Amino acid sequence: MTRIVADISVSLDGFVTGPDPSPDYGLGTGGEALHTGALSDYPDDRRILREGATRSGAAVLGRDLQLDIDRDATDLRLLG
């Protein structure tokens, strides 16, 4: 049987970005604080993120994030 795992950083009031997200500031004003673990340089945080990404067979992205990745990708493996 297929197993589905959902993982997203979200604030207590249901937001995934700070206010005023844009192509230049995808996480919005102060949005980095919501994603501290994903953006961290701490070895344990990096290991947990890497292990989760390794087990993942697919990622579901919103349209705006996919467009940002396509525009900024230097590693063509990010395009899919």
Your description of this structure?
The chain has three helices and no strands. It is mostly helical and 80 residues long. 34% of the residues lie in helices and 0% in strands. The radius of gyration is 14 Å and the shape is globular. The chain has helices spanning 36-39, 43-55, 63-72.
Helices and strands in order:
Layout: H1 36-39, H2 43-55, H3 63-72
Low-confidence stretches: none
Identify the quaternary structure here.
Answer: single chain
Strand content: under 5%
Span of the ends, CA to CA: 25 Å
Structural class: mainly alpha
Instruction: Please give the number of β-strands.
Output: 0
Count every helix, treating DSSP H or I runs of 4 or more residues as helices: 3
What is the H/E string?
A: HHH
Q: What is the radius of gyration computed over CA atoms, rounded to a whole number of angstroms?
A: 14 Å
Largest sheet: none
Question: In a few lines, what is going on in this structure?
Answer:
With 80 residues, the chain is an all-alpha fold. It has 3 helices and no strands. It is globular and about 40 Å long.
Task: Provide keyphrases for this structure.
80 residues, mainly alpha, 3 helices, 34% helix, 0% strand
